[in-house]
């Protein structure tokens, strides 16, 4: 168990809809990362937050947005969904700074199916 | 941002040692090298991390030459359950860093045969 919790595990919705994916990082971790993994594809970096602030953006569509709350949990919002948004969405967290090189710890993902 | 290059796939047999090499020619001073294992429909799992020379833990060893432009993950005596995708990730793990884009390459699909 990585300590990273993602909910829901599965989500089925229709095109045009909006969904919210939730991530609770490991206790004490300040950074949250979101990745998208389509079928037979690699992990595509979407966005990173550190202690509530956006730190890095990857290939995140304008229809997607995220935030990290004061309690450090994060939400990824996907709107105007298209069939191509069907994928596994992973959240990962890593520890604070201070000379410690903390690796990423991943949750088990949310499988989104857009029909 | 250091780009990584790995072989797309590798085959091995149970009981053999497997070495997977990752090239990262433009690795930066603050970058660490981390390897992950991913099974289908699961999140990647941390295997090992290093900065230079050699690191060993209970599941693998990581060899990093002095120039740090490549690294080799060594899996001793693999079993069928080691069949997975292995990712090499190079980056600055400090969460507060502005170089927070931790981008995975395509990974190496290891197939272990009986």
What does this structure look like?
The complex is a heterodimer of chains A (115) and B (114). With 115 residues, chain A is an all-beta fold. Chain A is built from no helices and eleven strands. In chain A, the strands form two sheets. In chain A, strands 2, 4, 5, 6, 9, 10 and 11 form a seven-stranded mixed β-sheet that branches. A four-stranded antiparallel β-sheet of chain A has the order 1-3-8-7, with no helix packed on it. In chain A, β7 and β8 form a beta hairpin. The model of chain B has no long low-confidence stretch (mean pLDDT 89). In chain B, the strands form two sheets. A five-stranded mixed β-sheet of chain B has the order 1-9-8-3-4, with no helix packed on it. A four-stranded antiparallel β-sheet of chain B has the order 2-7-6-5, with no helix packed on it. Chain B has 114 residues and is an all-beta fold. In chain B, β3 and β4 form a beta hairpin. Chain B is globular. Chain B contains no helices and nine strands. Chains A and B meet through β4, β5, β6, β9 and β10 of A and β3 and β4 of B.
Cα gyration radius of chain A (Å):
14 Å
Most extensive chain-chain interface: A-B, 33 and 28 residues
Q: Which outline of chain B best applies?
A: globular
Largest sheet of chain B: 5 strands, mixed
Helix/strand order of chain B: EEEEEEEEE
Helix content of chain A: under 10%
Structural class category of chain B: mainly beta
Nearest-integer average pLDDT of chain B: 89
């Amino acid at each position: 168990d990585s300590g990273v919790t993602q909910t829901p595990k599965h989500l089925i919705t229709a095109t045009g809809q909006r969904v919210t994916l939730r991530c609770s990082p490991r206790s004490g971790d300040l950074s949250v990362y979101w990745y998208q993994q389509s079928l037979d594809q690699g992990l595509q970096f979407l966005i990173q937050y550190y202690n509530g602030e956006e730190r890095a953006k990857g290939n995140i569509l304008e229809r997607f947005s995220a935030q990290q709350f004061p309690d450090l949990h994060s939400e990824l919002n996907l709107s105007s969904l298209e069939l191509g948004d069907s994928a596994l969405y992973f959240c990962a967290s890593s520890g604070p700074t201070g000379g410690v090189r903390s690796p990423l710890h991943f949750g088990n993902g949310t499988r989104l199916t857009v029909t | 941002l250091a780009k990584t290059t790995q072989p797309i796939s590798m085959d091995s047999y149970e009981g053999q040692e497997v070495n997977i090499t990752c090239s990262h020619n433009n690795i930066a001073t603050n970058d660490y090298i981390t390897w992950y294992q991913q099974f289908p429909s699961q999140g990647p799992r941390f295997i090992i991390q290093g900065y230079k020379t050699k690191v060993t833990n209970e599941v693998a060893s990581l060899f990093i030459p002095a120039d740090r432009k490549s690294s080799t993950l060594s899996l001793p005596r693999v079993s069928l359950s080691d069949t997975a995708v292995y990712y090499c990730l190079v980056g600055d793990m400090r969460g507060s860093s502005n170089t927070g884009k931790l981008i995975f390459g395509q990974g190496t699909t290891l197939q272990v045969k009986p």
